[in-house]
Amino acid sequence: MELKLKYETPIEWAHQAVTDIDSFLQDHADAERKVANMCLSLIAKYPNRTEIIDELIQISVEELLHFKQVYELIRYRGNELNGVFQKDPYMKGIMPIIRSGSDELFMDRLIIASVAELRGSERFKLIGEVVQDPKISKFYTNLHIQELLHIDSFIKMAKCYFDHDIVDQRTEEILTKEAEVSKNLPWRSAIH
To answer: Averaged over 20-24, what is the pLDDT?
Structure first.
């Protein structure tokens, strides 16, 4: 199954987002730390899921590298890290679809991680296309390409433990919910 968003972010979103590129960079830095933390949290909560631990560690390391790169852009712009995670209305909107059973929760967390990464990659591409600063443009264009290489990593992890058809069906349900949330959120200078 090819992972594909059901709602495409309009290019106008990117034009608006880059008017406050500093807020976008802060949000991006937060997002990279959150994904790294999520990977470590999955390892801590599911240490018996040994088939995916190496990959979760690798993704966590990559996300921390991206965080470092975004931090360097924040400093390049003459700013510092905010230090306080902002509330994420995107994740808040998606949370109601998450199931509570142990296996279902595990599957949903993995699928949502892939879907959120896909949305982030889409928006990195748009930012890279419209931002005027060549250093920031190059970073986001390259990051979009890098993200495409492991966009479905978390879904592949889910398929290590659950029937492929069930994972694909649940992915479709989550993609539908994600499209509804993304389409209805007010535009802001943030990844999601």
So the answer is: 96
